[in-house]
Each structure stands twice: as structure tokens, then as C-alpha cells.
Fold this sequence. Notes:
By secondary structure, this protein is of the alpha/beta class. The protein has four domains: 2-189, Dimethylsulfoxide Reductase, domain 2; 191-236 and 304-389, Rossmann fold (3-Layer(aba) Sandwich), CATH 3.40.50; 239-300, no CATH class; 426-537, Barwin-like endoglucanases (Beta Barrel), CATH 2.40.40. The strands form seven sheets. A six-stranded mixed barrel has the order 16-20-17-19-18-23. Helix 5 runs parallel beside helix 11 (162-175). It is globular, with a radius of gyration of 23 Å. The two termini are 40 Å apart. Mean pLDDT is 92; it is low at 1-10.
Amino acid sequence: MAGLAAAFGSGAMTNSIEEIEFTNVILAIGTNTTENHPVLSSRVKRAVCQRNAKLIVIDPREIDLVKYATIWLRQKPGTDVVVLNGLMNVIITEDIFAKEYVKNRTEGFEALQKVVSAYTPEYVEKISGVPAEDLKTAARIYATANKASILYAMGLTQHISGTDNVKSCANLAMLCGMVGIEGGGVNPLRGQNNVQGACDMGALPNVFPAYQSVANDEARAKFEKFWNVPLQGKPGKTILEMMEAAHKGEMKAIYVMGENPMVSDPDLTHVEASLKNLDLLVVQDIFMTETAAVADVVLPSACFAEKDGTFTNTERRVQRIRKAVPAPGQAKTDWQIIAELSARMGYPMNYSSAEEIMSEINTVTPSYAGITYSRIEKEGIQWPCPNTDHPGTRFLHSEHFSRGLGLFHAVEYVPAAEQTDDEYPIILSTGRVLYHYHTGTMTRLSKGSVERCPESLVEINPVDAEKLGIDDGQMVKVTSRRGTLEAKAKITTRSGVGTVFMNFHFHEAAVNLLTNPALDPIGKIPEYKVCAVRVERA
């Protein structure tokens, strides 16, 4: 999301969830919406089925949303920039872009035009596999819409070119004048219930709350004064950078809160060695996760129904949550654990309630300034909300971008970090299934979820299965340059020829033993979506 900071302020949805249902065109790229965001996907389906919206799906896998699509562009994994640049090539060549918008509200168009001129439909077909005529059709549908919304998720960001992919979506939206209008925008669909709120509150290594840079002297001085503590201006490390530092012995302790890197991080063999190299590993969670099992200290925390507070959802809406039941045993709320630990380390955090913390947030976080508990008693408010008279903001950038003019980024295609070869001839991609959530910490304790999806499967295209002599339901061995696992084969055309798909919910077939820890140089996101493997009968 970092690449959007210049034009879009943060990695938040520019528009609201309800607008998706009332737009003319939806372009869904790198998002298996029906399985990862089932409630939101109902808006997409209603837009298509009841309001005649057109749906463009760009995805290497035949996801459920393809059934509703006007057109489906099936690109080779890792070629998103090629396809997006190709769409813009057609739109500029056919002179169907928003000239007045580009002239008055953006800069950098000439550099963009120069780069995308090389991405002709024929060139795009050669690299990505998307037929030239299909690319042209999709480009015309998007560019000629009155309003069009781009939806994306981690299928777009979990690449070494993830930031470039997001920049390309922003380029496409601005080129067609689709940002700053109702029903338009660039809309990342968050994968967890409060990941937006965590980012808003500065749970990133390079920013304070409200995306105020730690390197900014003015922002840093403000927080130093408010918190009465000196703060450094150098960004911290991301998760995988922390693992690397632990592996080298440069980092001695890690505090893991509501995360399960022993299942969710790439190259798990390396992760396990890194964590075991620490002097101290602390895990704060609601269940005994695979990571908690190897921790030195486990701090039991309260779940959502056992505490008061707020969640900020994917459309920037800050919503109250209320304690419904007491927390079991010695479990405490996350803020209480942190405050007590801080006090023991010499920095008192004398909060009496979550509401008191929210009052501090109102003071130091400009976009949350007007979002008080009393105002969100019954219904949430979308930030930015600069004061208590402000109603909140349904969609962003209606008059201007946070930086003034929207900046086009001329982005060239960079191939995935790992390519197939004779030894590892198939591309593995990973994702989720409808019935499980993230590392299965909660859903795999639920009888219904386990009944519907009891095990991990390896999706293999029938063409590849025949070539490899693999039958449906047979155990197969999947090997990458980093590890090997065994799981049951599912023969299906959902995965394209030369690709396989696995979910990452099952520690018994931990797909992240295989995945590549190569990072996006800007966003520092690992390349979960493209990994070269060998598949054979077990």
C-alpha cells in the first residue's frame, strides 16, 4: 500500500462498500471476493444481477466471481503490471481517456504515456497470455463507464511488484477520471477485521498514527511532546526483516501479538530457525497457536466479544465493539496487557478504559479527531472526520488529492523473483478458502468449518494431472527450493495449465514451507503468489 501514499494518502478504500452496488463497472483484480470477503461480494453480485453493472475479472484462477463476469482476463501469475499497462495503452491509443481530468487534476501523464506505449495488446498477449481482443474489450468497458470501481486484495499486493501493481491500478483509475467520484475509486479489500484500524494507529514500522511519517521532524516533535518520550526518526523493521535480523542474532527479542508467523510467513523453515535463535519470544493471543507453542512467555488476551473498543473496517468506518461476556481465566484486554507491561518497564500508561484511549486518539490523530464514542454509539463514522461537527467522508479526493495533484507513476513490468525451470516447472499460488480464516487458529476449532473443509488440497489442472499421472484425491508431494509437503490432489480447471493452488490454513500441509520470502522493495510484502514447484505422486 505504501506506493499509493503520494496520491491516495493511505492504503484505504477510497470509496464506500455500499457504492459498489450502485456503480456501472466493477474491475476486480487479485481478489477472490466471494471467499475472502463474502459479505462484500454480495454487493458485487447484486450490482451485476439486479442493476446490470458490468464486471471485469482479472485473475489467473477461475474464481467464483468469473460466473458473474462480463469478461474474464486470465493472466499468467505475476504479470498484473503488463495487463494494467495494456489496458491503459488501449485507452490512450483509442483516445477514450478523461482528458479534462488528466489535465486539471493530475501530473506525470507524459511519462506514463511513454511507458505504456510499448504495452500493445499483442505484446501483452505474448507476456501474460491474455488475448489481445479481450484486453481491448475490457479497456473499452472500463474507460467508457460513467463510474467504475476497482477492487483488489492480496492477489495483487503479495508480489515483489506489489507496490507497482497498486500504482498501476491508481494510474488506470486516474486516467479515466474514476477517482474522487461516487461509485468509483481504488478499493483495497482488507483481509482482517481491524487491519485498517491497526494501520491507522501506526502499527507500521515507518509511520505514527494517521500515516504521519516517523522521519518527519514536525510529526515526531508532536508525539514526543504528547507522550513525553524521545522518538527516533528511523523506520523500524517489517516482519520478514525482523526474522532475518533474528536469524543473524541482531535482534534478541520479539513480541508477537495476534499473529501466527509459524504458519503465515513464507519459508517456514527459516522462520522457525529465526524464532529459536531469539533470547526471548513473547506471544499474546487468544489461543495456543503454533507460534505460541514455541514462545518463552504466552500472554492470554481477550477476544472481540470480551472487550470494549473500536474496529475500523475496510471502508474506513470506525465502529464500536462492546463487551458481551467476561474473558476466561487470566485473559486481559490487549491494551491492559500492554499498559501493565509498559508500567513495569518504567513508562506508566495510566488509562482507565478503552474510551480514554480513544480520547487520546482524537487528540493526536487528525483523521479521527471528530470520531468520539458518543458519536458512534449506534453507527460508525468514516474517516477522515476532522471535528465533531463533520459527518465523516463517504469517498475520498472529491475536489483534490491529499498531495494536490494525483501523480501518475510510469511503471515497467518486473518478472516474478522466481521463474520455473526443468526442475521446478509449475507455478504455485496461495490463498484462502471460504470456510477458514487465516492460519485456522479460530476456524479450525469450529466444527462446522472443519466439516465443510477438513483438509488442505492441491488444485491441479487436468492437463498437468494427466501428464504427471496424478488422480483426483491422490496424495501428492509438492517441492520448492525451500521445502516439501504432502497433500491431497484436487483435479480442477480452476487452476490454469502450469499452475497449482493451495490454501495456507492447515499447519499439517503448511504451504509456507514452500513460498518465496523475496520482498517487494517498497512495501516489503513477500511474494506469496508466485513460487516455482515440482509436483509428483507421493
